[in-house]
Design brief:
It holds the Pfam family DUF2304. With 125 residues, the protein is mainly α. It has 4 helices and no strands. α1 runs antiparallel to α2, α2 runs antiparallel to α4 and α3 packs across α4.
């Protein structure tokens, strides 16, 4: 029977705790479902690596790493990199949208002020 190492147990329970925390954030509407799916997928992957010794050892051999804990760390690092890229793409899109909205608002204000000035000039004549 395979026994889990202390590192695996800590990793697995840490991932489960993080998944529960993410779900609580979604429940309280502090995190959108869109982002929560990424976090839950990551924590499920890390928990699977933590609880499944054969899977962890197979991945360790497949990736040519020397320690099983390195695989869990590499998976976490890969997730962080993917999340940073995802958030950078989102932030870039939101920046473009914000700029477009600011331009539209400026044009609307200009039109409103122009109409207001024309209306004021017409009343005095």
């Amino acid at each position: 029977m395979d026994f889990l190492s202390r590192t695996q147990v800590v990793t697995a329970f840490g991932a489960v705790a993080l998944a529960l925390f993410v779900l609580d954030l979604v429940r309280r509407r502090r995190l959108s479902e869109e982002y929560s799916l990424l976090w839950v997928a990551c924590t499920v992957t890390i928990a699977a690596l933590g609880f499944s010794t054969p899977l962890l050892l197979w991945l360790t051999r497949l990736l040519g790493m020397t320690g099983a804990a390195s695989v869990a760390f590499a998976a976490g690092l890969a997730f962080v990199m993917a999340m940073l890229l995802f958030l950078s793409v989102k932030m870039s899109r939101l920046s473009r949208e914000s700029l477009l909205l600011a331009r539209e608002l400026a044009l609307l204000r200009f039109e409103l002020e122009k109409d207001h000035r024309l209306g004021s000039d017409g009343e005095g004549a």
